[in-house]
Amino acid sequence: MFNPAVFELLKTDSHSKARLGRLTTTRGVIDTPVFMPVGTQASVKALDSRELLEMGTQIILGNTYHLSIRPGMEIMAAAGGLHKFMNWTKPILTDSGGFQVFSLAKIRKIKPHGVEFRSHLDGSLLFLGPKESMNIQRIIGSDIAMVFDECPPHGASAAEMKGAVERTIRWAKECRVQPRAEGQFVFGIVQGANDAKLREHCAKELVAMDFDGYAIGGVSVGEPEPEMMSAVEITEPHLPAHKARYAMGLGTPAQLVELVARGVDMFDCVLPTRVARNGTAFTRKGTISIKGGSYKADFTPIEADCECFACKNFTRAYIRHLLNVNEILGLRLVSVHNSHLFLKVMEDMRTHLAAGTFHEFRQDFIAHYRPTEKVLLARQLHAAEKQDR
Amino acid sequence: MFNPAVFELLKTDSHSKARLGRLTTTRGVIDTPVFMPVGTQASVKALDSRELLEMGTQIILGNTYHLSIRPGMEIMAAAGGLHKFMNWTKPILTDSGGFQVFSLAKIRKIKPHGVEFRSHLDGSLLFLGPKESMNIQRIIGSDIAMVFDECPPHGASAAEMKGAVERTIRWAKECRVQPRAEGQFVFGIVQGANDAKLREHCAKELVAMDFDGYAIGGVSVGEPEPEMMSAVEITEPHLPAHKARYAMGLGTPAQLVELVARGVDMFDCVLPTRVARNGTAFTRKGTISIKGGSYKADFTPIEADCECFACKNFTRAYIRHLLNVNEILGLRLVSVHNSHLFLKVMEDMRTHLAAGTFHEFRQDFIAHYRPTEKVLLARQLHAAEKQDR
After folding, report:
1. Model's pTM, two decimal places?
2. Average pLDDT value for residue range A318-324
3. Is A314 on the interface with B (CB under 8 A)?
4. Is A178 within 8 Å of A134 (Cβ atoms)?
5. Chain B CB within 8 Å of residue A366 CB
6. Is the predicted pLDDT of residue B152 greater than 50, yes or no?
């Protein structure tokens, strides 16, 4: 089942750890660095497959936890898997359900071979472990499956974190030997929060199991940006260069650029579609709230020179109106723009990596992108703490 | 301003009053019979302009009342009219706001030159009359404007109805002489409920004013189907053959076929997109509730042989899942299918009218279409009442 040629490292940046690569699956080649739009419930929120393809989507993400509850595996199996169910012919990566079990589900009980929990939907008693998760992912038929891991919340105790890492390693071993869908790759997930020793230990154990790729988990769990960056920095050196690296659940456009510079190849994030539903648009200069009154007579596109369907056809004033009167088209157009921007930033990075100009692109992008106040304050706090030491 | 060639009557059916026609506006030719998707708030709910064009939309409807409140005429004027505001280059018809003032607005007071009412949104005091309505429609820049009429509810008293008809005539006269947008046509609206004398009187007065087309109003106000059909039947003989006839706010696919057979050329209706939001799909055999459990593993399209984007790409099982988990794509796909079906039925009627086979098409369509229980019961009641007389 293991295919040593799954990931090809084409080029490494001379100024950073950024990598240009290519991931070959049975359903097509994925150029990295890559952003994966999130299709939690067999739909990337507000978008259709045509819009996704038009904006250059190479691979989407599906959620094992959500899909196992609805539509359920009986229907998924009858449909012939998720690709056929949702009519998406390009690659799909599925998470393992671990993250959701630990963040969404009520009353969970960790057992040797998985987690007993109550559905966030109807409270019914469910069990998910390495065996169950891999079986669901096999039925879904994703091109890349993730191991079932334990993902503790930000701020968990050292003992809790250590236990989680040990279980993550043990469960990864179980996942490694489960039956897979044809051509399905399996990625390991490194946990360990901001403990360098724990991250190293977890990474080494997983690398010894020889997965098709490696994810950095335990990020996007509510930690401030500096901790997120450091979690990646302490993990990356222990991951093999010839395998793809995936940072789970991240991030803003500027964070994606900085994470690519730290050696990450793959990303997924709900931000582009989630904030769109509040009327927030991402631009290369930061976010803007399209609902704001200052745009009511602004007949320019969300972002100048943007080639997305929303920007080529509609103005801020029109989209603001749609959002204000709760027309679905409003949040859909912002979702189109945001998702397009995330994908385009990845494409720009690939172009600059190929041309040897990633360093200049990164400097320029970061100089123009204004992060949110929350991110800026977290950075200031981090810098102050460093000085105090 | 008046253009005698606006409507060309190309052919009349030999078995019914059905007409094949062509309406020429400055923004393009409209083949009739035609269905106009409703874009109340500058958006046909859940659909975008590309989807509308792909399904063969020739003209859409905008609502004066809603647009005058949001985005308001200041922004509309700054945008350069509704076409530019929403990026729709084909024709637009605007209603006059009369229907909404009488159905949506709170606390209204009828005055000689219009209606004083409170906004359904924030309760602010507003005034809409022939002058105001025509001015708003001029700023919107619709290709076809409607006169400001009084549309009483179903079951209004004879006196109320008579007063409404007199005001409708007087207000139509005022509308007739208001300034218009360039190339804008104005249609009169015949009121009079199910009173043949009143309908005739109203029609004759309006025809004497020489409008560019004539609408049958006071339908789709909660009346049972037989009354709706009869309102059209008693009005139609008093409308000139060489002008377009528009039945406002109607109807189901089977009703559209029957109304075309009664000599109507133009229709608008919120049904295709409104029922889609409840998960109800129209088919040539009647409606089906896609949310129903019987479709959970039905991997066929909503309707066999349908060429719409939803049916060509997705199954009932998938769309049911999307509706069940509240994914926007679900109601969007049903909206696409329903709107496409309404437009396709009109296209079929035009094809059969041209080929001289409308009679056969009508018989076949009605034989296969199962109306809702409500419509069937209203028909039975009507037949029983007829027998009792």
Report:
1. 0.97
2. 98
3. yes
4. yes
5. no
6. yes
